[in-house]
Amino acid sequence: MKRFPVQPHLGRMLRQARDESGLTQQDAAKRAKITNAYLCHLEQGNCMPSLDLVYQFAEIYEVPVSELVRQVPSDFGQWLRDARRTSGMTRRSIAQKANITADYIRELEKGDESPSTELASWLARVIGVSLTSGIPDDV
User: Fold this and answer.
1) Where do the domains of the chain lie, and which CATH numbers do they carry?
2) pLDDT, tens only, 58-104
3) Distance, C-alpha 72 to centroid of its chain
4) Is 4 buried (19+), middle (13-18) or exposed (0-12) by CB count in 10 A?
5) Which pick of 75, 82, 115, 138 has the fewest CB atoms within 10 Å?
């Protein structure tokens, strides 16, 4: 029987935060006082961590909890267009920094394409805004 991940999004976010923190899976598991195997299952999305454990990971990885549980806005195209215009960036400048094409940015803004959570997060960082609010990170 094929197993499907329970929480693939949260698992990817845990893995991304751990990678960005520079910790190995073994080091992160040790700090969280869980087994390496359990952290592996969490990162694969095969099980759901407790809320306390999510807060613990946020502290270990030095990121806000919202960073671990965020989702791509349903109106991402509008969000991207507004964030781009507010930042004063062009499609071309964002595309160059994000290593994608300006045409793809246009398709995202029109809603013809849907980004992965990772791409949406990356574009938010490139523009310098929060994915959840569109407000510049330094405000």
Assistant:
1) 8-69 (1.10.260.40), 76-127 (1.10.260.40)
2) 999 998 887 788 667 667 899 899 989 999 999 999 999 999 999 99
3) 8
4) exposed
5) 138
- Rounded to an integer, what distance in angstroms lies between the CA atom of residue 47 and that of residue 130? 27
Q: Using the 8-state DSSP alphabet, how is residue 49 labeled?
A: -
How far is it, in rounded angstroms, from Cα 26 to Cα 30?
6
Which residues contact residue 15 at a Cβ distance below 8 angstroms, ignoring those fewer than 6 apart?
43
pTM greater than the 0.90 cutoff: no
The dihedral built from the CA positions of residue 15, 19, 23 and 25, taken in this order, carries a sign that is: positive
Element (H, E) at 89: none
Nearest-10 crossing angle of helices 51-61, 25-32: 120
